[in-house]
Each structure stands twice: as C-alpha cells, then as structure tokens.
Amino acid sequence: MSFDVQAATDNYINALGPEALAKAAAYTSGSHWTMLWGFLISTAVAWLVIKSQVLDKIEGKLSHRSLWFRSFAISAAYLVLSSLLVLPWTLYADWWRELAYGKTNQPLSDFLSQGFVMLIISSLFGGLFLSGIYFCIRRLGTYWWAWSGGVAAVAVTSMMLIGPIWIEPLFNKYTPLPQGEVREALEVLAKQANIQPDRIFVYDGSRQSNRFTANVSGLGSSARIAISDVALTSASLDEVKAVTGHEIGHYVSDHIWNLIGTAVLMSMIFFYLSNAMFMKVANLMGAKASIAEPRGVAVLLVCISFLSLLAQPVTNYVVRLGETEADQYSYKAVNLPDAMASALVKTAEYRDPRPHPLQELIFYTHPSVEKRVKAAMEWKAQHSN
User: Fold this and answer.
1) What is the tens place of the pLDDT at every residue in 66-95?
2) Contact 246/317 with Cβ under 8 angstroms?
3) Is 227 helix (H, G, I), strand (E, B) or coil?
4) What's the whole-model pTM score?
5) Are 171 and 114 in contact, with CB atoms under 8 Å apart?
6) Banded pLDDT at 256 (limits 50, 70, 90)
7) What is the number of H-type helices and E-type strands within the chain?
8) Where are the alpha helices (DSSP H) in 311-356?
9) What's the pLDDT at 1?
10) What is the predicted pLDDT for the residue at 385?
11) CA 322 – CA 299 distance, rounded (Å)
12) Angle at 344 between CA 21 and CA 164, to 5 degrees
C-alpha cells in the first residue's frame, strides 16, 4: 500500500482540532489588520509631531551645529517621541493581544522595561542610520538614493555582527547548552555547518514568548546556534534536531547575504521613490521641510513605511523561498520529516496553517504550515525504505 501524502498532511493539520484551527485563523487575520492599523496610527502620530513643529524648534536651536549632529539629534528625537506617542497601541498589539491569545506570560513591567532598552538602542542606531542618509542627500547630489544602499549595507551588516554579541544578551540570558543528548545531537549538526560546537546556547525565550523557536545568527566567528528554553521543554529531541537543521540551513545557504542584498536593493528603491513622492506627502501632512532637511524626517519615514507596506508581497516571496530552501536542508542533513511536520504544527497555533492563497501571497513570511507539512511528507514518501 503506497504512502498517501495528502492524507498524512491532513492528519497532522487536523490533529490540532477545529477550535485550535479557528483560533489560529482569527489570530493570523487579526495580525494582518494590526499591521495596517499600525501604519495608520504611526502616520497619525507623524502628523501630530509635524503640527506641533517640535522638530522645527529642535533644528532651530541646533542651527549652528554640524549637519551630521543635527541629523542625528533630530532623527533620534523623532524616533523617541513617536515611540512614546504610539505606546498605547504598542501595548495593545505587542503585549495585551499576545497575552489574550496565550502567546506570552510576560509581565507588563518586564515588557515595558525591555521596551525602554529597545527604544534607546533603536533611537541611537536609527539616528546614526538616518544621519548617514541625510549626508547622502546633502552631499552626494541627484543620485543620493543609490548611495543610500551603501549606508544600508553597512547598517545591516553591523547589526548582524554585533547583534548576537552585544544586543541580544540585553534581552535574554544566553548560557552554553548543558551536556546531554540534545547537545550531542546539535554538535553533530554544528560541525557539518562549520559552526564551532562551543557556540551552542540556550536562552530564556520563555521570558517573552511561549513559541517554540531556535535560530542561527551572526557572521563568521560570531555565528552561533541558540535554542529557546521553550523548545527544550515542549519539543522532542527529534523536533529540536529538525528545527535546528532548518535554522542551520539558512546559515549554510548564505541567506544572511541574501538578506543584506535585499535590504540594500529595497533601500535604494524606497529612497528613490521617497524622493519622488516626498513633497506631495509633505504637503498633505502640512510639513514645510524639504527632503534634505532633517526636520522632515517624519515625512520621510511615512513614505518609507508606506512603500514597505506595498512591497510586502515581494519581500515576503523572497523570504518564503529561503524558508523552503532551509526546510530542504533539514530533510537532507537530519532526515526527520515527521519530526519537522510535528514541529511545524506547533507553529500553526500562531500562523493559520490553511490560509487563503491571496492571504499567503501578501502577508506570509513562511509558506503555509500545510504546504510545509506536505513537503515533509513528500520527502518521506520519496526517501522512505
């Protein structure tokens, strides 16, 4: 009797039960609406800041300072101010909603304290990035938007290098994965990918989320495997191996360079289009600044946010290709399709496993769980003895 791929796929997905499937669909659909509302609310906040003329006042007081300092200070000030104004929405979207769906147990005080740290980091790095963009606009002429790709490349690469070492430990505690069968299994996978075995960590991911996660981050000597403690308490050894194999697949397939390349290309496109639409958006929002003036940063970021929203189908398609490739690496390196399938079903709790094709095309950063489970069952059918 031949192995029925579709029946096996349906058995995995249906094992969640009608109630869990309905909850996953509601959560996923709500997340997509949350994304749209987030853009509209951030645009309204930008309009309020423009009307208050606070950025004009800051630029006036700093008129005697260098372009770099004015750009950095005004950009950082806007990032802080807008984040504080949008805080009620952030609390709803990123904390209360996650709590209501059982995706987190993080206390509000801890969420706020970590948010404060993130605000400082994002404002500093965001200010530096935007000051680089304003340097390009003011000093490099008509094709400044092309040079912005270089700024984006430096920014993204820098974050990839320093993130695992300096930033991620500010939010979670990373310790070497204890000796045992999990570590022994992951050391084999790490050696296959030329990742040093002493770079395998476990972190307290349960602090922020109840989701089953693992990741491989960093570049070169900073590359490391990190497993959330949720994975160690809610997954089997085979599931941990299968999922870690997937994450290593991203590293081995050089998806990090694809990410950097995509960021550079999209930055150039976004800044080119922002240059063309800036004055129209500025007039609509009542701003008097030109694109070359740092006090117009609110308008510039609204343009980029709008373009990012429109580009979702394209960027998500690129990411989905990488996710499929990483799955295939896991099947080849680990060969545990059933473990991958059962692990994927656990992610269906926060990602509708059977979305409408249009919904998947526009919003999904991963292929649907149903498609990925089916791919695992197809691998099993082709490679089972």
Assistant:
1) 989 999 999 999 999 999 999 999 999 999
2) no
3) strand
4) 0.92
5) yes
6) confident
7) 17, 4
8) 312-333, 337-347
9) 52
10) 58
11) 33
12) 125
